[in-house]
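Build the 3D complex.
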Amino acid sequence: MELLDNLALGLGVAFTPINLIYAFVGVLVGTLIGVLPGIGPVATIAMLLPTTYGLPPVTALIMLAGIYYGASFGGSTTAILVNLPGEMSSVITVLDGHQMARQGRAGPALCIAALGSFLAGSVATLLIAAFAPPLAEIALKFDAAEYFSLMVLGLVSAVAMAGGSVLKAVLMTILGLLLGAVGMDVNSGASRFTFGMSELIDGIGFVAITMGLFAFAEIAINLEQRGHHNLLAQRISGLWIKWAEFKQALPAVLRGTALGSMLGILPGGGATLSAFAAYALEKKVAKDPTRFGKGAIEGVAGPESANNAGAQTSFIPMLTLGLPSNAVMALMVGAMIIHDIQPGPQVMTRNPDLFWGLIASMWIGNLFLVVLNLPLIGIWVKLLSVPYRLLFPLILLACAIGAFSTSNNMFDVWVAIVFGVLGYVFIKLGCEPAPLLLGYILGPLLEENLRRALVLSRGDFTVFLTRPISLVMLLIAAGLLLLIAAPIIRKQRAIVFAEEK
Amino acid sequence: MMWVRNPRDLLAGLLFVAFGGAALVISQAYEIGAASRMGPGYFPRMLGVLLVVLGAVLALRGLWPSSQAQPRWHLRPLLVILAGVASFTIAAPRLGLVVAGFLLVCISSAASPEFRWKEALLSGAIQGLAAVAVFIYGLRIPLPVWPVLLAGGQ
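Done.
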């Protein structure tokens, strides 16, 4: 079977010593930042990206991917033990997970979170292996017009899934597209928006942008809001889970896995959305919904499985179409470009070792995570006692050196500072920075395909409507925009996102 | 400004209009071409128009009442941490990574409400040295370790 051959190829790549080591480093760092509040996977991946320059591309991607799903794994630990979600994706786990811990059931809660995540991760890995090739096959037939419409659809659905005002998210996306245009225009050789600075010829450094928006601005916001939080020192006894509890949780794990896998594929989806949706689903199907919020094990099992499944299946559109569905995937696309790999459907045929190696490494990474999280849980909890006032200068220092090392030029650090100010202003004005990053990454591709499509059609804009696949994608995009603009949905959406905060 | 009910949306809208306007003005210098043969100015101008129009819509919405909480601005932490990073940027090429790292940590630590002098100095010194160990020797970042004068111009 082809699937098995491919997986065997992937496992062969993933099981080389260097890739095993970096997969381990990735999930270790991911767990670490997942446990620590105040630093997320986006900032961490941007920070560590420059350190991967010397590595083979597949090793670099394996490590960076490990950080992402490791973070969604580690975030649950603090959510359960100290009522403090380490990551957005584990916000919902706090509700029942911490209640379980207070009832002295921290062990089973942590255990089901880890086992559920592992199961979900394994299923999602198989799903990627099964669905990515046919999707890429379709995408290989795409012409410029289809690509343009696909990217429009991707950006629109990312907007639809973002929290807060739709109009603001649209504006942030457009601003991101504009920032992507900075630098030399590949078709004409003209410099655009470079203000005579030679450092901008290659465009604004995306590591610098990400650090400014996601590290500097976040730290400033954290420092404003920071109150003292009391750590609830929990003694964890009996990490294992009883068979009866496991049987009760298993259906929730399976439902969470299925839901998370589906939502992860959608542009704009990923770990966070999957977790919220899974919690809502568990509450709906429960015989006695009043148990939720009081330590129901399904309320931990469902969302924790879903967020891990979602984190992994969000790799599908990135790997097969070159279409990032969230800020982390935008960074992965950037990382591929830095390593001279053009993201898109051809990755699978041109770099099969990279594609299958990355997928196989996710399964191995999930295995590492179970080992890292269950027996070593005490160490992670101790880490929480490191005060933020010692932590954030360290993050700043790592960011400053990281931004410098992308081009060995201090210019990138200044760019990061400018985007730190901008990011702070945007957050204060209620504009989420993630759509800007997506727009920035997709900008050059969107422009290129727009140009090519119109060259082929001799300037006729109807080309996007007369080609059936392109038309369908634009119709879905338009439908989505109409849908979120409709008053009823808007209200529902506001409720969903209000729960999030 | 009594008639502004939602200054947050108004400000955000004006900010986007400003970005779009700037893009439109600057891209006047780039050849626009035609749809079938786009010049470098075509796409930026499209985006500029979109930003100005949609930004204006957002700004106008700021005139309508809203239940949204308005932000409070505490610029101090932001300015202090960015001053720390800026000091690093200026210091690193001449004074070396140890001094620059020390400056960054000490200055930015002051952004925390729980700031303590002695602790910041100590952690600055440790982190400056740790940065050298990791980044210069581990990852071979081309920055001087010590002030350039002391190291004899290297």
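The mean pLDDT of chain A is 84.
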